[in-house]
Design brief:
Elements lengths: L8 E5 L4 H12 L3 E6 L2 H15 L3 E5 L5 H13 L3 E6 L14 H29 L3 E5 L12 H21 L5 E5 L8 H4 L15 H13 L4 E2 L6 H14 L14
Parallel strand pairs: 1-2, 1-4, 2-3, 4-5, 5-6, 6-7
Helix pairs in contact: 1-2, 1-7, 3-4, 4-5
The structure holds NADP nicotinamide-adenine-dinucleotide phosphate.
NADP nicotinamide-adenine-dinucleotide phosphate binds next to helix 1 and helix 6.
């Protein structure tokens, strides 16, 4: 892979479809070389051909099941050793449906391995490489259910709350080293995720579904503006700022020597 590209290489997980494939297209258009990661190699190779031809950038496919430790370590190792990589898009993820009591716990475990464990290891590897180089960016794809756990499946929502929390802490840890960290919180976006997790997309309110191109363009606009958290459909950014300041107000009272008077 070339190290000559000024923009560097973007490593995108879950690049074979949906949001990840759309990031791949948009970042190629911006002039990034790409390293595309997912399980479905033929789909990745089709993207390699199309994007390298259309945009004249270098595109490489890397087949990996990120729930498989050996595959995950190979991607992590690539992030640590390839100094051309300047952007990590931690996008690969899966959803599930139904209550926790009724859930298939092997599916729950796979979701946690993909949405949490893989994202954490790759964030750590990228933080180390980018931090040492004093440049680079990590885009973590969370979800609005990080803020609204009542809306959806427990484990999926909790996994996305984790992604948001991790990203916010990471901003403090590596922001000063010149590394940008953005958490993206999409609402319902038209991709294969619904069918893959056994949900009927046609049952979703059409007014709540965003097309994937519009979602990724908005997220990249937020990235360009240096936003730490981007909620593509939120009309008034002040609403998010208010939540942050309400949280900050709790700060000084979250840990005291004695319990609050109402508990005595
Ligand atoms: P999608 O079309 O189903 O894409 C998921 C991607 O993840 C695919 O490229 C898939 O590729 C990859 N993937 C799945 N399991 C994998 C594994 N074990 N190892 C490696 N790659 C794996 O869904 P999407 O909507 O674009 O989802 C992308 C991200 O957006 C996810 O993190 C999702 O939680 C988040 N999100 C989606 C929505 C929405 O409404 N669509 C809303 C909020 C957040 P292979 O099958 O080829 O491996």
């Amino acid at each position: 892979m070339s190290t000559q590209n000024e923009k560097g290489t973007a490593l995108i997980t879950g690049a074979s479809s949906g949001i990840g494939a759309t990031y791949a297209e948009r970042l190629a258009r911006r002039g990034h070389d790409l390293l595309l990661v997912a399980r479905d190699l033929p789909r990745l190779q089709a993207l390699v051909e199309r994007l390298s031809e259309e945009y004249g950038v270098q595109v490489e496919a890397m087949q990996a099941d990120l729930t498989d430790k050996a595959d995950l370590l190979a991607v992590e190792q690539r992030l640590r050793s390839d100094s051309a990589i300047t952007l990590l898009v931690n996008n690969a993820g899966m959803a599930m449906n139904g209550t926790l009591v009724e859930a298939d716990l092997d599916t729950v475990e796979r979701l946690i391995l993909l949405n949490i464990v893989a994202l954490t290891r790759l964030s750590a590897a990228a933080s180390a490489s980018f931090g040492a180089a004093g440049r680079g960016a990590i885009i973590n794809i969370a979800s609005v259910v990080a803020l609204a756990p009542e809306m959806f499946n427990a484990v999926y929502s909790a996994s996305k709350a984790y992604v948001l929390s991790l990203s916010q802490t990471l901003q403090g840890e590596i922001g000063a080293l010149g590394v940008q960290v953005q958490a993206v919180l999409p609402g319902i976006t038209r991709t294969e995720i619904w069918a893959r997790s056994g949900m009927d997309e046609s049952a979703l309110p059409p007014g709540m579904i965003m097309e994937v191109g519009e979602m990724v363009d908005a997220a990249l606009a937020g990235f360009d503006q240096g936003e730490r958290v981007t909620i593509p459909s939120l009309p008034d950014a002040a609403d998010w700022a208010e939540l942050i300041s309400a949280r900050a107000k709790l700060g000084p009272n979250l840990s005291h020597r004695s319990a609050a008077a109402r508990y005595k």
